[in-house]
Each structure stands twice: as structure tokens, then as C-alpha cells.
Specification:
Blueprint: H1 25-50, H2 64-73, E1 84-86, H3 92-98, H4 102-110, H5 144-158, E2 164-169, H6 176-185, E3 194-200, E4 203-204, E5 207-208, E6 229-233, H7 237-254, E7 258-263, H8 284-294, H9 300-322
Parallel strand pairs: 1-2, 2-3, 3-7, 6-7
Antiparallel strand pairs: 4-5
């Protein structure tokens, strides 16, 4: 985990935030439930990958404390009046917080024809939900920062409160796509309502981020553009909620960009290609449960039941998915063109 932040008590809210939120028991319990649901899902996806039920795994265990609050705060819907979402492959917690069903991630891992995100033809955690403005996730890093420019321009012209939200990792900020987004979002001729989020989990595959960047904080990129930027403890869900709420309010009102860096843990390595084994880093769920028990929000036995309930529901979902069919070969031609296939394309066999 990145070490630029000093340790501080969990849920210590910024002075500008609503202090009552620190004691909102229902919000804490909701956050905990979705964080656990995501962790149980990701650990099952890892097992599926290792057991031959999928070809590859990449996800975000350790980033739940930041990604769940993000999902709670998004203005969900379709069209420019709602938020456009350019996620990357570590955003499962955000999707679940928005209301996605974990079974659909199992379907994508197993490449079933019932996978609603890609019909069984994309890596796991690569979502696409048009009715929620979730732009298709790409496996190439940081290209989402380029596509975010397009929806940012559309929303700048349309006005209203809809904003573009784009997420990526620390290593990808070395890519030109990230810096192109910074340039386009801050052009005086048309500043763009884009919330640029960087979840810094400390590594780019196997390279420590400090060996790659001369910056002390990745949010310091904002200084060159005279735009707001902040680095927060991404292992603190309430602190993350406050910071995200503040950043979103700024972008919605001012119609200008904001750069937010969340420093988080990476609990299972980069992906299945690096083994996907548990590593010794701070666990945001363990930290949250400890704080909840100490503050009397919930007893350990209650928290344990959440794990048991989520695991049981996922077990049932997994059994169902194992009985579902793989895509029919001819379905490869579906959704290739918006207006259907040209006559020159075959629909059965052939080449």
C-alpha cells in the first residue's frame, strides 16, 4: 500500500463535510454489506480462474472502501443528464454498489451466453451497461481517459448536473491518454465536467509506483493545470465518501475537472497471471469491522452473519451459472453493426 498518508482514526471526516454522516449507522452497514459482497465475489472469481472455469482474472480486492462509496454517489441513468462512467477492470465494487447482480460477473468469468456485459466474449470485470451509461471497459490501460473526453464535451455543451467519471490505476497515469484527458479537460475554450479518479494500489503489475514517478502524490499532476486535486486514504470508506461527495459537488456545480487519488491496498496481486495469491497488506474490510465493533455499530457475530449470507447467496448463483449454456457459434455476428449485418457477411459457418 502507498505510504504517503499518515495514519489517522477511521471515519475522521474533513472539516467541510457533514459531521452527522460519521454516525450514520445505516450507511455504515450498507457499505459493509456491499464491501463483503464484492470481496466474496472476487475471491470466488479467483477460484473459478484457478479451477479452469475461466481463462483470466483481474479485479479489485482491497479497493472496496473507495469503490463502494463511489457507486453510492453516482447519478445513475442514461443520457447526458446522468453520469457517464468510464471504469476499468478493478471496479466491481462500484457496479455492485450501483445495484448490479453478482451472478452476472460469474457468467462473464465462465463465458456463458447469458453474460449480459459481453455475451461471454470478454474478460471478467469488463462491464458494459448502456442503460446506466457504463461505457464498455477496455483491457488496454488508460484508454478510458480518452473516451471520457468525448462524453465530457457532450455534457459541457448540454449543461445540467451530469458529469463524466473516469477511473484508472497509478501505473496508467504514465500513459499519454491520461495526460491528454488533463489537457482537454482544462482547455480555457471549453472546460469539461470530468471527475478523474486514480486508485493507487502501489504497483503497476510488479513495479512499485515510487520507482516509476518522481511525484510525491499523483494528485500533484493537477498543479500544472491549476485544477483541484487531492490524495486520500482509500482504505477509509467514510473518508472516501466525504471526499467523493465533495469532488462530485464541485464538478457538478462548476462544470470543471477535479483529480482525486485514493491510496489503497492490492490484496491479490495484479491478476491471475501473477498468481492471484493473498498478500500481507492492510485489509479495508478488516479495518472497517474493527472500527464498527469498537464504536458499537455492530457486534462481531452480526458482521460474521453478513459474510455467511453473502457466501451462501453466491454459492447458489455459482451452481446456477454452471448449468447455463455457452454462446452459440452464430451469435458471434450479433451486435457487430448498429443496424445489423450487411448482406456480404455470413450468418452460418463459412468465412
Amino acid at each position: 500500500m502507498p505510504d504517503t498518508l499518515k495514519e489517522r482514526p477511521l471515519w475522521e471526516a474533513p472539516a467541510s463535510s457533514d459531521p452527522a454522516l460519521k454516525f450514520d449507522r445505516d450507511l455504515l452497514l450498507r457499505m459493509h454489506r456491499i464491501m463483503v459482497r464484492t470481496r466474496v465475489l472476487e475471491e470466488r472469481l479467483i477460484k473459478m480462474s484457478k479451477g479452469g472455469e475461466g481463462f483470466f482474472w483481474i479485479g479489485g480486492p482491497g479497493e472496496e472502501a473507495f469503490n463502494v462509496p463511489l457507486g453510492f454517489l453516482i447519478k445513475k441513468g442514461s443520457g447526458v443528464e446522468n453520469d457517464f462512467l468510464h471504469f476499468h477492470y478493478r471496479s466491481s465494487a462500484t457496479l455492485l454498489a450501483m445495484g448490479a447482480d453478482p451472478i452476472d460477473s460469474l457468467r462473464q468469468m465462465r463465458s456463458t451466453g447469458t453474460d449480459p456485459y459481453s455475451k461471454g466474449r470478454q474478460f471478467v470485470n469488463h462491464y458494459a451497461i448502456p442503460e446506466w451509461n457504463v461505457v464498455p471497459v477496455s483491457p488496454t490501460i488508460e484508454t478510458q481517459y480518452l473516451t471520457a473526453i468525448g462524453t465530457g464535451i457532450a455534457q459541457a455543451r448540454a449543461g445540467g448536473e451530469g458529469i463524466t467519471i473516469v477511473t484508472g490505476g497509478d501505473a496508467g497515469t504514465a500513459e499519454g491518454d491520461f495526460h491528454s484527458c488533463l489537457v482537454w479537460a482544462n482547455r480555457p475554450a471549453l472546460r469539461l465536467p470530468i471527475l478523474m479518479l486514480v486508485v493507487n494500489n502501489g504497483y503497476g503489475i510488479s513495479t512499485p509506483w515510487r520507482d516509476q514517478f518522481g511525484l510525491k502524490k499523483l494528485s500533484d499532476w493537477s498543479k500544472a493545470f491549476d485544477m483541484p486535486g487531492k490524495t486520500i486514504d482509500g482504505n477509509d470508506p467514510i473518508g472516501s465518501y466525504h471526499a467523493l461527495k465533495e469532488a462530485m459537488a464541485y464538478v457538478r456545480k462548476e462544470r470543471k475537472p477535479y483529480l482525486l487519488e485514493a491510496q489503497a491496498s492490492r490484496l491479490y496481486g495484479h491478476s491471475s497471471s501473477s498468481g492471484a495469491n493473498r498478500v500481507a497488506e492492510p485489509d479495508c474490510i478488516e479495518l472497517l469491522e474493527q472500527a464498527m465493533a469498537e464504536r458499537g455499530v455492530a457486534k462481531p457475530a452480526q458482521l460474521k452473519k453478513v459474510w455467511e449470507r453473502e457466501a451462501a447467496e453466491l454459492d447458489a448463483a455459482h451452481k446456477k451459472v454452471k448449468e447455463e449454456p455457452f454462446p452459440e457459434p452464430q451469435s458471434v455476428w450479433e451486435d457487430v453493426f448498429a443496424d445489423g449485418l450487411p448482406p456480404s457477411y455470413p450468418t452460418k459457418g463459412g468465412s
